[in-house]
């Protein structure tokens, strides 16, 4: 059972370009979370998705950022018109939730975005 | 709003010592608490998960305790080794997705 898979591991974009980060959850997990980690700071929650639904996007910047988790395929975090301040490590996590029992969250290796 | 604090921010110990990492949280209405390990430039590895109804969990040399009413958890590492050097993160899950502390950076000196 492969773990949470994120790609690419490293991504370099010029200011103004678009960045697409992908996350495939663990097999059997239907809950996906995206976090951002800035240098010397903790992980900050961005968005929580289930298949085809955004459950909580309270941590997402209001502009340029969007996320989806389609019925088929990986979850995508999309950043339009990137700026230098978007440079960070972006982590995806998945969990299995059964009726109110909140399961263990497993994280991917992250995508390190550098904006030049 | 849930806030998680980890003390100390950094810790350096000689190999073989037993040590305790502390985590506190402001809202005791949680479902579970997880301890993670993060190596430099790497992802997060889940170490222990404690459900809100549990008091502690053990895995090898690691023992995590939870006192939900007082908003505290501790991670105990026995007989520390240089390979334990990493950042240890505490995170709580309530009505919001996991909220993280800033971590304790541990260095075990051979």
User: Which class of secondary structure composition applies to the elements of chain B?
Assistant: mainly beta
Secondary-structure element order of chain B, as H and E? Answer: EEEEEEEEEEE
Structural class of chain A: mainly beta
| Succession of helices and strands of chain A | EEEEEEEEEEEEE
- Gap between N and C termini of chain B: 41 Å
Number of strands of chain A: 13
Structural notes for this entry:
The complex is a heterodimer of chains A (116) and B (110). Chain A is mostly beta strands. Chain A is built from no helices and 13 strands. Chain A has strands at 5-7, 10-13, 19-24, 31-37, 43-50, 53-56, 65-68, 75-79, 88-95, 97-98, 101-102, 106-107, 111-115. In chain A, strands 2, 4, 5, 6, 9, 12 and 13 form a seven-stranded mixed sheet that branches. Chain A has a four-stranded antiparallel sheet with strand order 1-3-8-7, with no helix packed on it. A two-stranded antiparallel sheet of chain A has the order 10-11. Chain A is globular, with a radius of gyration of 14 Å. The termini of chain A are far apart. The model of chain A has no long low-confidence stretch (mean pLDDT 92). With 110 residues, chain B is mainly beta. In chain B, 0% of the residues lie in helices and 57% in strands. Chain B contains no helices and eleven strands. Chain B is globular and about 40 Å long. The model of chain B has no long low-confidence stretch (mean pLDDT 95). Classes of the chains: A mainly beta (116), B mainly beta (110). The interface between A and B is medium-sized, with 21 and 22 residues.
């Amino acid at each position: 059972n492969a773990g949470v898979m994120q790609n690419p591991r490293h991504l370099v974009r010029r200011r103004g370009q678009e960045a697409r980060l992908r996350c495939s959850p663990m097999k059997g997990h239907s809950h996906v979370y995206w976090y951002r980690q800035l240098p010397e700071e903790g992980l900050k929650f961005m968005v929580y998705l289930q298949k085809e639904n955004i459950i909580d996007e309270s941590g997402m910047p209001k502009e340029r950022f969007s996320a989806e988790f389609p019925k088929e395929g990986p979850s995508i975090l999309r950043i339009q018109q990137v700026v230098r301040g978007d440079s960070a490590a972006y982590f995806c996590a998945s969990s299995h939730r059964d009726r109110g029992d909140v399961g263990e969250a497993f994280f991917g290796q992250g995508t390190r975005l550098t904006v030049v | 709003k849930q806030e998680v604090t980890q003390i100390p921010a950094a810790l350096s110990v000689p190999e073989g010592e037993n040590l305790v990492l502390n985590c506190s949280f402001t809202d005791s209405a949680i479902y579970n608490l997880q301890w993670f390990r993060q190596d430099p430039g790497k992802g997060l590895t889940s170490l222990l998960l404690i459900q809100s109804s549990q008091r502690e969990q053990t895995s090898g040399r690691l023992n995590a305790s939870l006192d939900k009413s007082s908003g505290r958890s501790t991670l105990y590492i026995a007989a520390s080794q240089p390979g334990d050097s990493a950042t240890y993160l505490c995170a709580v899950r309530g009505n919001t997705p996991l909220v993280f502390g800033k971590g304790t950076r541990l260095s075990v000196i051979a």
